[in-house]
Amino acid sequence: MKNVENNQLFDRKISAWQAVLEEVKLENNSLKNLLAEAISKNVSRKFVEQAEIFQQKFVDKDQVLDLLRHDISSLLKNRGITLKSGSQLKTLGRDIIRIQSELRHLKSAFYQYLQSQSESPDV
Questions:
Q1: Of 28, 36, 44, 119, which sits most exposed with the smallest number of CB within 10 A?
Q2: Does 123 score more than 50 pLDDT?
Q3: Domain annotation for the chain: domains and CATH numbers
Q4: Full-prediction pTM beyond 0.90?
C-alpha cells in the first residue's frame, strides 16, 4: 500500500515539475520574443550590447531547462531507485525552484531595462 502511495506522490510531483518547467520555458520564449521586438525598434550600440547580454542569459535558461527536463526523464526511467533514495527528488525540486526564481529576477531586470530605455531621451 505504501509503495502505491509513493508512486502516486512521485507521479504528482513529476507532473507538477513538468508543468512548471513548461511554464518557465514559455515565459523565457516570450522574453526572447520581446527582446527581438525591442531590438527591431532600437538599434543603438549601447542597447544592442545590453540586449546581447540578456539574450545570452535567456539562452542559458533554455539550457538549464533542457537539463532539468532530462533529469526528470532519468528519474522516470529509474523510478524504483529514485523512490528509494529520495535525494535526487529533493535536489531536483530545489533546482526547479531556483530556475523559477532566477527567471523572475531576470524578467524583472529585463523589464526595468526596457522601461529605462523608453524613458531615456537618447533612444
A1: 119
A2: no
A3: 2-119 (1.20.58)
A4: no
